[in-house]
Structure formats: C-alpha cells, structure tokens
Amino acid sequence: MNGCGEEFVSLREVGRRLNIPASTVVYYKDKFSRYIPSVGGEGRRKRYPSEVLEVFRRIREMFGKNYSVEQIERELALKFGTMINDEQEGATSVSGDMKRVLTRLSEAMQDQTLFRSEIRSLRDEVAELRREHREVVGRYRERVGLLEKGFEMLKKKNAELERKISTSAGGGIDFPPAEYLASPLVIRTDGEFLGVQGKGRKHFSLKDFVSLIERRMSESMKVETSWSRKDGTWVLVVRTQANGNGTDQNIVLVTRKTVTPSGNTVTEIVRMNINGNDAPEALLLSLFRQVRSVFGG
Fold it and tell me: Is the pLDDT of residue 70 over 90?
C-alpha cells in the first residue's frame, strides 16, 4: 500500500493470490505486457496496481479454455485496454505526437525546398525565354531591315526600267499583253497562214521568236529591245551593238492580231526590217522553215 491508500502487488503476490506458478505469471507478464501496467522499480522490485489481478486471472482463464494468443489479446484490448500504464501511455502518446509533428515539419521543409527549386527552375526558364525572344526579335528586325533595303533596291531598279522603256518607246510604258505574246506566230504567204507547231502541240509564239533573236544576238553583241504601239500593230525594235569586230544591227518587227478563216486568233508578222531594208517574203518563209526544223523536232 502506498501513502495514498492505493494497493500495489508484486508478481510473486499475484501468483500466490491466484494460485498461478511464478514462472507462468512471468510468462503472462512478458507475453501481454501491453495490458499489464506497472509503477517504479526494476526487475523483482517492480510493483503493479492491484487491478492487474483481474488481468492475470482472465489470462489464466482464457488459456485454460485453449484461447489463442490473438484471441486473448483481442479480449484484453476490449476489456482492459484502458488499464495500460498512464505514464507509459502518455509518454507513448507524446512521443507519437512528436514524431508526427517532426514528420510533418520535415515534409513541409522538403515541400518548401522543392517549391523553391521549382521557382528557381521557372525563373531560369523565363529568363531563357526572354533571351530567346530578344534573339528572335533581333533576327526579325534584321531580316525586315534587309527586306526593306531589297525593296528599295527593287523600287530603284523598277524606276530605272520604266525610265528606259519610256525613253525607248518615246512615251509611257507600253508592252504587249501576255496573251498577245503567247498567241501562235504566223506569216501569210500566197494568202495562206503559215505557223510552226512543236512537240506536244505547242505552237511557236511571238515570245519564242523574240527570245530566239535575243539569244542568238546576245552571244556576240549587246542587245537592247523596245516596244511601241502604232496603228493597231505592235512594233518591236531590236538594237544590237557588236562587242568586237562586227556590224551593229537594227531589226524592226511589226506584228498585229489576226483571226484566221478557221477562227483561230494569231499574231501575224506584217513586216520585218533589217538595217532599214524590209525582209522579203522568201526570207521570212526560209526563216520559218528553219524554226520548224528546230522547234518542231
């Protein structure tokens, strides 16, 4: 008995009162220590509140009925769970709470570290994106600058070309329409229209004829061409200047739009003048035959 009137017993006293061998009492104590509270002392000096007599009695009874250890523990937990040493329970509870607090604190610190790491990564990504944006904007402005310079050069070249055409044509810009240049080119001989048709039923056009003249003459001399419109005809003037030994030439080709008896729209060579002399019909006929041998394949 302590000073407050509460009774405490030893394991020897438990065995004596319940008529249980001492070794069996020790076995019960070790096996089911969670349900047997104790106070103070070590070893044999350890004392137990008198309430444990009922715990040991019940354990003895259940063993006598061949209960398994698991069944005994469940029974003890249901009936004597609250008899666990308050001091141990409090310490265990405080320890468990402390562990939970420390665990949460550790998790919070880890989360904070991860959060800061993510923030740094995001800042690095933003900085990289800004750098790339500056580079892209710089390249874009550089290209825009180059395009503007190129556009200005094209405007100057176009203005120069317009000036040359205007000067050579004796007035404003004048040039045959694309359909006129692409129409079949023909000559009229003995009242019949003669043209040239090549492979794939492609006809020989005024555009092909001008390209042929320019290509042949540009091999050995400088070539300048100009167009003008006069009395329903288109007049092409080809001026050549020899690069070395040779004679300068001026070729004037007069053409007009014509509809053949079969209803085809063609471009007819009305006249061809070389250095002031009109080319005879025989020359044009020979020229077309040569073109047919090359163009017609």
Answer: yes
